[in-house]
Amino acid sequence: MSLKVLNPNAEVLNKSHALHMNINAAKGLQDVLKSNLGPKGTIKMLVGGAGDIKLTKDGNTLLKEMQIQSPTAIMIARTAVAQDETSGDGTTSTVIFIGELMKQSERYIDEGMHPRVLVDGFEIAKRATLQFLEKFKTPVVMGDEPDKEILKMVARTALRTKLYESLADQLTDIVVNAVLCIRKPEEPIDLFMVEIMHMRHKFDVDTRLVEGLVLDHGSRHPDMKRRAENCYILTCNVSLEYEKSEVNAGFFYSSAEQREAMVAAERRSVDERVQKIIDLKNKVCADNDSNFAVFNQKGIDPPSLDLLARAGIIALRRAKRRNMERLVLACGGEAVNSVDDLTPDCLGWAGLVNEHVLGEEKYTFVENVKNPHSCTILIKGPNDHTIAQIKDAVRDGLRAVKNTIEDEAIVLGAGAFEVAARQYLVNEVKKTVKGRAQLGVEAFADALLVVPKILAENSGLDTQDVIIELTGEHDKGNVVGLNLHTGEPIDPQLAGIFDNYSVKRQLINSGPVIASQLLLVDEVIRAGRNMRKPS
Amino acid sequence: MLYCSSILSLRSSYCISFFKFQSKMVGFSMQPYGIQSMLKEGHRHLSGLDEAVIKNIDACKQLAVITRTSLGPNGISISQIILYFFTISLTVDLCMNKMVINHLDKLFVTNDAATIVNELEVQHPAAKLLVLAGKAQQEEIGDGANLTVSFAGELLQNAEELIRMGLHPSEIIVGYTKAINKTIEVLEEMVEKGSENMNVRDKDEVITRMRSSVASKQFGQEEKLCSLIAEACIQVCPKNPANFSVDNVRVAKLLGGGLNNSLVVRGLVLKSDAVGTIKRLENAKVAVFVGGVDTTATETKGTVLIHSADQLENYAKTEEAKVEELIKAVADSGAKVIVSGAAVGEMALHFCERYKLMVLKISSKFELRRFCRTTGAVALLKLSQPNPDDLGYVDSLSVEEIGGARVTVVKNEQGGNSVSTVVLRGSTDSILDDLERAVDDGVNSYKAMCRDSRTVPGAAATEIELAKRLKEFSLKETGLDQYAIAKFAESFEMIPKTLAENAGLNAIEIISSLYAEHASGNTKVGIDLEEGACKDVSTMKIWDLYITKFFALKYAADAACTVLRVDQIIMAKPAGGPRPPAQGAMDED
């Protein structure tokens, strides 16, 4: 052991040991995550160090929160998280697919095959599958008016894997409408323009879409209106509080009058700025019964708040920067950085500005806006873990809708694609490959079947029966998926089960890459200094 | 009571598993297969039906046992002393209540479930879900937390039986979901006709609806308490009752006396003395200054620059003149009282005395805001001459000495719907705290009835009817979920059973005679706990609010289903932090 000579503390695993460690880790991670897959998957409860509870079915959340330590598992988890970042979904599938590739390879390796040959087969199979995906996908035309039904089907498929059915169906409409609301023709969709806000009360089914904005703070003055209709909205980023000078300044005075004058002078510039806003309010609200609200990104100090309150203006201070952007998109007008040249054109408009108090938390609703390009998904739930669960699901739902619009294509779900691709690989591609790489293609093809297998397993169906029935139908030329309730083959098109094209593509792209890397490892060395204290 | 230790102090078992685990971590070449090898050390992983689901149910059941015994007017006759991280239970005769000592060594004697579960610091994750459901109920309605936790516990207990019978948790969830939907349907039918129209200003009507909620906290004293709470609530009820704010009914706890000395003050009771020498005023105008009553100061640091002795002398004079000018301006505006939100300067106080102004200092921002609401004053930021509109008005303002504490009583009869205060008297802090919680519950149920005044029969009549109707419903179902629905129905029996048991009655007899009455069509028959017989609730006048029941049952079913849905638990190593000081044996006293 040459390494032991160099560093007696080093640990080394070589050849088949290293390989098996990797395979075991991949399989172990697959075991953990597989019960989450699909609409019938179960929920995991994560308990944090402080005793906080998180309930989740989302592979991404799970991988992030689990604090994995095994080096191989971390690599796989990173791939899965990357999958989530690029396409928003499919983390669980990635982990399972990688695990299955390793499992299939193990069989061949134990028979004495060299991993390099398998890896070559994977590469061929991957390319062939990607080509097949291009043929297999269903193109959809998005244009100016995307087909809402298709978007809903994709969103529903994604959401049902994260939440229970009735809630998922309700959220489907919400996420589709939210994305369509912020969509501007010819521009990429920026999902940040959908604000996700939560309130801890009532039930999860009270979650709704607010066309407008919900802010999680209220006005800080007791005399301001709690509810205002027909409201002009001024979005600004102007400091309305006295700011001390940068240099260490001091006043010198020798009588109380002088001091009073100083006090007045200190405030003058702030008061002037406030007065400009009040002037504008008086100008636009002079001859109608409309109201006026100021949303300021910077602070407003109590004397300024007082002045604004007396003028009948609702003022919110320290709004989040991204909310300033959303507010302009929702209500119109523009965000101003100075009050020097205020014109009525800078103002937006909302039908209702309303403050809602929930215990000690305050929420401000800006609703009934005209032609909004930003909206808020208001999540409600009786406790934090419900809210967190819905939040993760909504995020994935939004991504699914966005992907569909951008891909202009969808893929049949319920395991239909995987079975079809497997049959294609086995029946056609394999014959064109010469030599032992064939076995790599075969391993890849069998690994694809893991998705329908686990779907069946999680629904309490017999895995073998299901696979035989599905492949049989595919060989007859019917493209079918799995009905999780009955175990019978169904046409995913009729059932409305569609997956994202980009999710599938990313999955097929990244899975084999990481699996190949892991297979080609022949030595694992731990020789770094142990930073932890010996126990 | 051993069960307490099992749910409350998982921490000790954390440690055990932690050590076991370390011995396994020899080198990474020996890594075992499976999830344990992948997680950071100290993690715990529970999965599967036996390890996760049944264990969870077990923990929840035990939590429910604790809360259940304080359900209803006759609580329980043992108390549990629960210390942080380890548990000793004593059977001290302290009728009805539970004695809870939290980690700050604060003692609670209560049978308010919300308080109990809050202070217990439940550690088991599944039991925590139930606690969260109870908390949600407390935040939503302010009452019925006990029903939520106990009922969810009962549902889970029955679910365990179903699992042992061979049902899969997902089938139980389906059944329970169907059952809760049916329950809500039936509950709606149970609503007493005519109760949806209610005059929220009618004291008797209010008391009818409030009584059961208050009685479950303070049995025997509910008549007196209800009338106090109702009076206070009605006084501050705004024109549109839906806008009723719980914050407007204040509670002032004053040690000494007894409940019979308690009273309702229309206005505020401040637990502080007046600053100056004037302690009593009537029919006076009030000026409120947030920023304190003192000389004005610049934000930037100011320095007095003095060149000669003359200037020094003059400076003090100009200062005095300035303050006098300000105080005089306030006095000239007609105000007789100055309320300051911050410090009151010595010099300012001197001039206030000279101009015969009463001075109050209220340092809490919220209290000051309430004071403004009571008096109708507009709070001014700086000491300056107030506009006539900005002044508030009080009928009387007096410093009184009640039970050794000086309090300022602010009365404002004309103010209409502003703020009212229930002054509670009691002999110990614990009694006062418990009374306060009863008042809070009462006020919250007033709020609930302002939102939705519908009532359903109380005294377990509703529960028996629901049980009966759901059982009928389950017989019509064909699938496996019929068993779950039947068990759901059975769970309702827990309530009459507990009520009867806590009152020392024979539960089985009571339940069977209740069923008999309900089967013959008397849907409003409940338990009369005093006589130990079944009676029509309309003669006993025990009504529960529909909305409280609705939310409690729904949250309970939600929580139970969530617990059932979980089949794997992954626990991180508990975060470090200072260990609590080792607790010795309880002091003898």
TrEMBL record, chain A:
<dbReference type="GO" id="GO:0005737">
    <property type="term" value="C:cytoplasm"/>
</dbReference>
<comment type="subunit">
    <text>Heterooligomeric complex of about 850 to 900 kDa that forms two stacked rings, 12 to 16 nm in diameter.</text>
</comment>
<dbReference type="InterPro" id="IPR017998">
    <property type="entry name" value="Chaperone_TCP-1"/>
</dbReference>
<keyword id="KW-0963">Cytoplasm</keyword>
<dbReference type="InterPro" id="IPR053374">
    <property type="entry name" value="TCP-1_chaperonin"/>
</dbReference>
<dbReference type="GO" id="GO:0051082">
    <property type="term" value="F:unfolded protein binding"/>
</dbReference>
<dbReference type="InterPro" id="IPR002423">
    <property type="entry name" value="Cpn60/GroEL/TCP-1"/>
</dbReference>
<keyword id="KW-0547">Nucleotide-binding</keyword>
<dbReference type="InterPro" id="IPR027409">
    <property type="entry name" value="GroEL-like_apical_dom_sf"/>
</dbReference>
<dbReference type="InterPro" id="IPR027410">
    <property type="entry name" value="TCP-1-like_intermed_sf"/>
</dbReference>
<dbReference type="GO" id="GO:0005524">
    <property type="term" value="F:ATP binding"/>
</dbReference>
<comment type="function">
    <text>Molecular chaperone; assists the folding of proteins upon ATP hydrolysis. Known to play a role, in vitro, in the folding of actin and tubulin.</text>
</comment>
<keyword id="KW-0143">Chaperone</keyword>
<dbReference type="GO" id="GO:0016887">
    <property type="term" value="F:ATP hydrolysis activity"/>
</dbReference>
<protein>
    <recommendedName>
        <fullName>T-complex protein 1 subunit zeta</fullName>
    </recommendedName>
</protein>
<dbReference type="InterPro" id="IPR012722">
    <property type="entry name" value="Chap_CCT_zeta"/>
</dbReference>
<dbReference type="InterPro" id="IPR002194">
    <property type="entry name" value="Chaperonin_TCP-1_CS"/>
</dbReference>
<dbReference type="Pfam" id="PF00118">
    <property type="entry name" value="Cpn60_TCP1"/>
</dbReference>
<dbReference type="GO" id="GO:0140662">
    <property type="term" value="F:ATP-dependent protein folding chaperone"/>
</dbReference>
<keyword id="KW-0067">ATP-binding</keyword>
<comment type="similarity">
    <text>Belongs to the TCP-1 chaperonin family.</text>
</comment>
<dbReference type="InterPro" id="IPR027413">
    <property type="entry name" value="GROEL-like_equatorial_sf"/>
</dbReference>
TrEMBL record, chain B:
<dbReference type="GO" id="GO:0005737">
    <property type="term" value="C:cytoplasm"/>
</dbReference>
<dbReference type="InterPro" id="IPR027410">
    <property type="entry name" value="TCP-1-like_intermed_sf"/>
</dbReference>
<dbReference type="GO" id="GO:0005524">
    <property type="term" value="F:ATP binding"/>
</dbReference>
<protein>
    <recommendedName>
        <fullName>CCT-theta</fullName>
    </recommendedName>
</protein>
<dbReference type="InterPro" id="IPR002194">
    <property type="entry name" value="Chaperonin_TCP-1_CS"/>
</dbReference>
<keyword id="KW-0143">Chaperone</keyword>
<dbReference type="InterPro" id="IPR027413">
    <property type="entry name" value="GROEL-like_equatorial_sf"/>
</dbReference>
<dbReference type="InterPro" id="IPR017998">
    <property type="entry name" value="Chaperone_TCP-1"/>
</dbReference>
<dbReference type="GO" id="GO:0140662">
    <property type="term" value="F:ATP-dependent protein folding chaperone"/>
</dbReference>
<dbReference type="InterPro" id="IPR012721">
    <property type="entry name" value="Chap_CCT_theta"/>
</dbReference>
<keyword id="KW-0963">Cytoplasm</keyword>
<dbReference type="GO" id="GO:0051082">
    <property type="term" value="F:unfolded protein binding"/>
</dbReference>
<dbReference type="Pfam" id="PF00118">
    <property type="entry name" value="Cpn60_TCP1"/>
</dbReference>
<dbReference type="GO" id="GO:0016887">
    <property type="term" value="F:ATP hydrolysis activity"/>
</dbReference>
<keyword id="KW-0067">ATP-binding</keyword>
<keyword id="KW-0547">Nucleotide-binding</keyword>
<dbReference type="InterPro" id="IPR027409">
    <property type="entry name" value="GroEL-like_apical_dom_sf"/>
</dbReference>
<comment type="similarity">
    <text>Belongs to the TCP-1 chaperonin family.</text>
</comment>
<dbReference type="InterPro" id="IPR002423">
    <property type="entry name" value="Cpn60/GroEL/TCP-1"/>
</dbReference>
